[in-house]
Design brief:
Elements: E1 2-8, H1 12-26, E2 32-35, H2 40-46, H3 52-60, E3 63-68, H4 84-93, E4 98-104, H5 117-120, E5 124-130, E6 140-144, E7 150-154, H6 160-175, E8 180-185, H7 191-204, E9 211-216, H8 217-226, E10 233-236, H9 238-252, E11 259-267, E12 272-278, H10 295-307, H11 312-315
Parallel strand pairs: 1-2, 1-3, 3-12, 5-10, 8-9, 8-10
Antiparallel strand pairs: 4-5, 4-11, 6-7, 11-12
The structure holds 3-isopropylmalic acid and magnesium ion.
Amino acid sequence: MKVAVFPGDGIGPEVTRQAVRVLEALDLPRLTLFEGDVGGIAYHRHGHPLPRETRDMARAADAVLFGAVGDPSCDGLERALRPEQAILGLRGELGLFANLRPAKTFAGLEAMSALRPEIARSIDLLIVRELNGDVYFGDKALETLPDGRRRGWDLMSYAEDEVRRIAHIAFSAAQGRKKRLCSVDKANVLETSQLWRNVVTEVAAEYPEVALEHMYVDNAAMQLVREPGRFDVVVTGNLFGDILSDQASMCVGSIGLLASAALGERRTEFGTFGLYEPIHGSAPDIAGQGKANPLATILSAAMMLRHSFGREAEAG
Ligand code: IPM
Ligand code: MG
């Protein structure tokens, strides 16, 4: 069970260190860990946020444990060299299209939530975020028009097979939970979302026991604070999933509490290959002060034990 550990920038190394301590304490016989550079630190050391050695390490591993990337000293670099390209590059190159982001309030921590305790207590949901498409991976440009005005654009698009495969992941997840799936889109305005909605509805026919509802993303943002307990599994595109998962984290209590698994089709000897990371960023403002909550990374390591290594007992 080879784990590539990529601590990255800011609080990444300190939260990753704690997750590694937990993994080591389990003393699993076949577990080996090796470390690589990603993000701003990799740029400063190797001239690229996702150096070749790191890519090779990820490919050779059975799972990746990822800290965080983001480094203000890189803000002026061209986009291809910015720290975020490390995580986007790994998600893209490794075909990790399914992002599972569970949000559940810990009993006793309701007071941390931005919501009233009785509302916070009801939260137990799973965001299934598509991770290989949408505006994240579409063509994009910053350009100057002939009349001298600057323009920026990013292409939002989904092909039906991309929607279908994430829909299957979400329906299967719902089947193993409370059998409710909410698909979030903006079909009242976007054609991309219209296709999303049509395809999710088609896939629903294969899962008669799962109750499907569609919701516009603005309404979903509202319902997530109004009545979060109504959600079981939420499936959505890359951009909406990014935003809603940060929102869900504050409903639970802290962005330092939400773990994630990015999965694709690759299977290893032990389970599904995956990349595991906290949903938070590198938080440079508190880096190195021992203040960052490592729980999201520890919980991500637990997801790794579950999905990549089939070690349900240790994951629990
Ligand atoms: C996340 C992060 C990333 C994203 C950034 C670091 C590129 O916000 O994993 O949610 O936008 O996907
Ligand atoms: Mg995010």
